[in-house]
Structure formats: structure tokens, C-alpha cells
Amino acid sequence: MPATTETKVSPMKSFLIDRYRKGGALRLGEIPEPSLRDNDVMVEVHAASVNALDNKIRDGEFKLILPYRLPLVLGNDVAGVVVRVGPKVRKFKPGDEVYARPAQDRIGTFAEYIAMDEADVAIKPSNLTMVEAASIPLVALTAWQVLVERANLRKGQKVLIHAGSGGVGTIAIQLAKHLGAHVATTTSTANVALVKSLGADIAVDYKKDDFEKVLQGYDVVLNSLGKDTLEKSLNVLKPGGKLISISGPPDPDFARQNGSGWLLQQAMRLLSFGIRRKAGRRKIGYSFLFMTANGGQLAQITSLIEAGHIRPVMDRVFPFDQTNEALDYVETGRAKGKVVIAVK
């Protein structure tokens, strides 16, 4: 059990779930402030963004992969101010303005305070407000881990980024352009101008064209959509290409990395068997990515933001007491960029 630093515990407001329920409302309640471990920073939350992941956790879609103890405070993105630090913390001090995606087993940013391991935290970009900064961590880390880590995207390569006007898409387009790639994306008629302004070379309007008939010879596809789009994406890739999905199905490698038991590993093997077989026949690599917290990578993203290579794209800001409305809005799938909750 990790060591904790004893401090006076005060109640804090938070939005939490008591049980998994599709479309269920979060409950506003008072709970104790989280305990502070030796390597933790306690952050006063100023803003938190909403991700599709929050709705999926609430609905119970990840209860086998992420076995949370209920009641659970939701929220996977934060920007705020450090108020206390554990005795072993070296990188941060009270007063620092920071942002982060907490580790998956320590989420809970829809609250007044959150404790996080300092390894998962980075100094907030100096040119962003708290609300803007809160929109960045999860989607930017996802884009980084797909394009830089997993795909090793290089200058001159061709990448297709699905759902270019969404949270991940808006950041991934900018990152891919910074890496020197030729970028195509799928979007609706209303968002063509937006994705072009972010650097997309080709914007395929899915209401008018079938992307798999328009695009060929691509090196990488970042998929965030459903099964049909996933399978059609194989037609876009050249042999040796990489199909990387953040919406599933999970594959055996993910199951092993996640520490899943044998039975769950076999279930994920079966779930992804069809797409892995189809990809294999075309000499294309399929993999599923569930992003992980990483303060070091976030610090590199900070540098890109401060240099003007990446900018946040935000749709709406909701006050803290309208957190449920913010989740409902994200669930419509119509948001351009990110939806943020102003906590303070």
C-alpha cells in the first residue's frame, strides 16, 4: 500500500456515480478530499474537460477492463493549482499552475480537488487559460501515443485521421502536420473549414463521399469510430501500413499490458480476431490503444503549444453545477473540439 501523508481532511463537492447506468445522471455530493501519497501533488481544480470516455465509464462499458470501486468521481482531464505536495515530490511546489490526465485508476477531476502522482502532471502552458489547458491532456496524449509512439509517423508519410473535428481529431491533425505528414481527415460538411484551418490537406466530407474510395496508399490510420469505418480503413492503407484504433476492439497485446486475467485476454483475442485476420491478409498491422497518463509526454506537448504548433479547439464551457448537461452535450457527438467544465 503506497504511503500517505496525513493532513486534515475536508469535504469537497464532486460529481460521482453510485452505480453503472447508461445515460444515468451523476450525483452532486460532498466527499472527503483525496488522501495525499508521498509522490503526490494535491491540485485545486480550476477546470476539467469532458471526454467520451467519461460517458462510457458511467455507462459501464469499461467495467471489465477498469474495475473501479463505486461510488466513483468521474473526470479524466484537469487544469488547476498545486496546493500541497507529498514529502517525496521534487518537480512541483504549492502555487504551480499545472494540467494533467490522471492515471486511469485515480480519475476524479469533476471535483474541487484531486491528488495525482507527480509523474502524471506537467506545468500548464503559459499561453493558455485554465479552461483552455483543461481541454488538452487526454486528447493530446492520445494523439501523441498513436502518432509518435505507436505509428512512429515521419515526414512525408500519409495519415488518415477520422473524425477530424472531434477532441482527438483536432489535436491529431495539428500534431501530424508538425511531424511533416500529409494529413487526410473525415468530417461533416459543416466542419470542413475547421479541419482545413488546423492543417488537413484533404477533408473528406462523409456526407458526400466514401473515404475508402477517395484515399489510397496511406501509411497510418487513426480510427476513433465504429466497426464499419474500422474495416473500410483497411482499403486506404498500403501493405506495411498501421491501423490504430482508440475505439476498439481491444487486442491481446492491450489485454496483457492492462494486466487482464487469462479469461479476459481470450475474450479480447476473440473480439479483435476478425479485424486482425483481415488486416493480416493485407499485411497491415492492427492495434488498439488505450492512452495512459504521462507527465513527460505532456511536457513535450506543452512546448509545442507554447511554440504555436498546437492550439486548443473548444466548443462550449459549462459551469460546474451543469456537469451533467456537459456530459449530455458530449454524448450528442456534435461538439467541435472539446467541452470544458469551469470548476472555479
Describe what you observe in this structure:
- This protein has 344 residues and is of the alpha/beta class.
- It has helices spanning 52-59, 130-134, 137-150, 167-178, 192-197, 211-214, 227-232, 252-257, 262-271, 273-281, 295-306, 323-331, and strands spanning 4-5, 11-17, 27-32, 36-37, 40-50, 72-73, 78-85, 97-100, 113-117, 121-123, 158-161, 182-187, 202-205, 218-223, 237-245, 285-288, 314-319, 338-342.
- Strands 5, 7, 8, 9, 10, 17 and 18 form a seven-stranded mixed beta sheet that branches. The protein has a six-stranded parallel beta sheet with strand order 13-12-11-14-15-16.
- It is globular, with a radius of gyration of 20 Å.
- The mean pLDDT is 95.
Question: What is the gyration radius calculated from CA atoms?
Answer: 20 Å
Major sheet: size, sense and barrel closure? 7 strands, mixed
- Shape-level CATH architecture of the largest domain: Alpha-Beta Complex
Mean pLDDT: 95
Strand content: 25-35%
Low-confidence stretches: none
Quaternary structure? single chain
Overall, the morphology is: globular
Structural class based on helices, strands and sheet pairing: alpha/beta
- Could you state the CATH homologous superfamily of the largest domain? Medium-chain alcohol dehydrogenases, catalytic domain
Order of helices and strands: EEEEEHEEEEEHHEHEHEHEHEHHHEHEHE
Organism: Neorhizobium galegae bv. orientalis str. HAMBI 540
Domain Enoyl reductase (ER): 23-341
Pfam families: ADH_N, ADH_zinc_N_2
Keywords: Oxidoreductase
Itemize the secondary structure elements and their pairings.
Blueprint (H helix, E strand, L loop, with lengths): L3 E2 L5 E7 L9 E6 L3 E2 L2 E11 L1 H8 L12 E2 L4 E8 L11 E4 L12 E5 L3 E3 L6 H5 L2 H14 L7 E4 L5 H12 L3 E6 L4 H6 L4 E4 L5 H4 L3 E6 L3 H6 L4 E9 L6 H6 L4 H10 L1 H9 L3 E4 L6 H12 L7 E6 L3 H9 L6 E5 L2
Parallel strand pairs: 11-12, 11-14, 12-13, 14-15, 15-16, 17-18
Antiparallel strand pairs: 1-4, 2-3, 2-6, 5-7, 5-9, 5-18, 7-8, 8-10
Helix pairs in contact: 3-4
